[in-house]
Amino acid sequence: MRRFVIFLILAPVMLLFPSASALFAQQTGMSSYSEVNWIDGKMVIDVETTFAPGSESLRMRDNSEEFFKKNFFNIFMDSIKKDKYGPLYYNASFTIDEMIRKTPDMLSSINDINNNIIKVFSVYNQDMAGVRMQYKLDIYSDIGSYFIKHKIPVKPEKTFIWIPSAKYSGVVIYAKGEYPLHGENRKGTLPPALFPSVYDERMRKIISMEMVSPEYLEKWGCAAYFSDPSDPGIKERVGDKPLYTMASSLFGRNRTDIVIPVSDADKLLYRGRNERLITEGRFVIIHDRPASAP
User: Fold this and answer.
1) In this predicted model, what pLDDT tens digit does every residue of 194-207 receive, in sequence order?
2) Of 73, 101, 183, 278, which sits 20 to 30 A from 7 (CA to CA)?
């Protein structure tokens, strides 16, 4: 997911960045691009600064890095609010931007996120007229962890009526294409979310944020998203003997929650023998890469 944002930096930047030269403050531009890889749970932010001729080239890199840190809040919030494919979703009800703004503790934690961000590189452009920088965040440990409030996961409902089942190593949900939107007379495609939920057709909850152990939520969330069913990363998440099922409909304001058949849900919930798969978030969702937002 890529986002293109342009900031034109004028004289007021001196109020935020007093160590920069006047020429830097008055005639420097910056563009930023962000991309979320939902397979490995990483957000990469690429930033490029441009300088007017005659700028102090020896300080360009230091000034650029410091400027990024000073303006991290705006860059970060813009990145999660709107990218090439639309907003980044928290769950079926809220975007990540909405959740941050409605969670005072999270707003105060932006500085912690800034301190945890990893600088991948910082180099001069070929024409020495600017600096290219790349930074990386983990969307689960660096962002999602601030929303985790429970310590003990909620146990899923158990099915005691006998049903042919097995001890599975994980769950793979096929959700490519369009599906009916639950309670609506239309169809839609599945977008990824930080903390999606899965229900069955009786609206029993199969997995959700509060049903996953906090350590696994911070590690990889509730579910991983893949567009290629043959990706070797799927096996790493769900093991050799996963349960395969298909979405029957999508649910929620943001249509990020999945509904699966009751028969497959019963296989997971029978006598709680697959409870560990839910607690550890060993779910994979096969979906279409989203199209660019209009």
Assistant:
1) 999 999 999 999 99
2) 101
CA distance 268 to 234: 19
pLDDT digits (tens, 9 = 90+) for 115-151: 889 999 999 887 787 899 999 999 999 999 999 999 9
Distance CA 207, CA 216 (A): 13
What is the spatial distance between Cα 275 and Cα 273, in angstroms, rounded to a whole number? Answer: 6
Assign 3-class secondary structure to the chain: CCEEEEEEECCCHHHHCCCCCHHHHHHEEEEEEEEEECCCCEEEEEEEEECCCCCCHHHHHHHHHHHHHHCHHHHHHHHHHCECCECCECCCCCEHHHHHHCCHHHHCCHHHHHHHCEEEEEEECCCCCEEEEEEEEEHHHHHHHHHCCCCCCCCCCCECCCCCCCCCCEEEEECCCCEEECCCCCEECCCCECCCCEEECCCCEEECHHHCCHHHHHHHCCCEEECCCCCCHHHHHHCCCEEEEECCEEECCCCCEEEECHHHHHHHHECCCCHHHHHCCCEEEECCCCCCCC
On whether the CB atoms of residues 38 and 224 are closer than 8 A, the answer is: yes
Sign of the CA dihedral running 29, 33, 34, 39: negative
Give the number of C-alpha atoms closer than 13 A to the C-alpha of residue 57, restricted to the C-beta side.
Answer: 9
pLDDT digits (tens, 9 = 90+) for 3-32: 444 333 333 333 333 333 333 444 467 788
